[in-house]
């Protein structure tokens, strides 16, 4: 299928080198869930799906702006992430302490929130005027192709041509 592997010097399993899968195009789909549904259908028909690959074509990066970044928002976001980090350490202290006290957890969460808030404010003030908004990033494809080993194309097509409710 176009995956090149090399034997490791330490006897570990061979690692696949990144390469584009080679073979026939079983189908092209507008969305990933459509391509995934075809692979799932073949899997349910006991087809060896290890011989398939879903390839996204014409990749695009999409950044969706979610809001304006302010000192208040930077402080709140920093405090929230710091509190989670502090909570994690508080639970560790609680679990591994010889005299566990629930106060460890609360204190660690509060200290984490405080440091997170300070870090959020300092980070925002240092980067201000370069980026005053929040956003999310996605990598999207224009289309998705299912690539298959050419020796198995006819069998896969035959399975896909069957009505979904028929037995295998």
UniProtKB/TrEMBL annotation:
Superkingdom of the organism of origin: Bacteria
This protein's name: General stress protein 17M-like domain-containing protein
Domain spans labelled General stress protein 17M-like: 25-98
Residue span of region Disordered: 1-23
This protein's record includes keyword Cell cycle: no
UniProt KW keywords: Membrane, Transmembrane, Transmembrane helix
Residue ranges crossing the lipid bilayer per the database entry: 74-96, 102-122
Lineage, opening ranks: Bacteria, Bacillati, Actinomycetota, Actinomycetes, Micrococcales
Protein species of origin: Conyzicola nivalis
Pfam families: YflT (PF11181)
InterPro entries according to UniProt: GSP17M-like_dom
Keyword Nucleotide-binding: no
């Amino acid at each position: 299928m176009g995956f090149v592997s090399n034997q490791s010097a330490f006897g570990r399993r061979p690692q696949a080198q990144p390469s584009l899968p080679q073979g026939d195009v079983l189908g092209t789909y507008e969305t990933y869930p459509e391509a995934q549904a075809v692979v799932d259908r073949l899997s349910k028909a006991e087809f060896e799906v290890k011989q398939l690959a879903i390839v996204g074509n014409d990749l695009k990066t999409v950044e969706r702006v979610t809001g304006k970044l302010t000192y208040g928002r930077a402080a709140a976001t920093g405090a929230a992430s710091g509190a989670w980090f502090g909570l994690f350490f508080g639970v560790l202290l609680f679990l591994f302490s010889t005299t566990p006290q629930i106060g460890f957890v609360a204190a660690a969460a509060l200290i984490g929130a405080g440091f997170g808030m300070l870090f959020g404010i300092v980070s925002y003030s240092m980067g201000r005027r370069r980026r005053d908004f929040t956003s999310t990033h996605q990598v999207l494809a224009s289309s998705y192709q299912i690539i298959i080993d050419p020796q198995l194309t006819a069998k896969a097509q035959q399975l896909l041509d069957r009505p979904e409710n028929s037995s295998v």
